[in-house]
Amino acid sequence: QVQLVESGGGLVQNGDSLRLSCEPSDGTSRFYTMAWFRQTPGEEREFVAAISWRGDVAFYSDSVRGRFTITRDNAKIAMYLQMSSLKPEDTAVYYCRMPARNSWGQGTQVTVSS
Is the dihedral of CA 3, 106, 18, 44 positive or negative? Predict the structure, then answer.
């Protein structure tokens, strides 16, 4: 496994923007697909977005497509989630995921007030 450290969460208002970061501890992580998931209390963790190792292919859930953008910087060995037009229903703990290494981050809380 590889350690994944998220940052950038916080409390924002409806319509605001926020950028999350994920930094793997292992430099070889640049060669793997990475993803963001989110979870609210009592619910299963749900897929948000994923990006290929080159950063040229991205996938989004229907609920965030057009508002969120996933990117990565392999020189810095980091992945980002730019979230715009945030809604209260985006409130959740957001997790970084590296499926090939079976790794999850510890999560970062995003709260959007109405």
Answer: positive
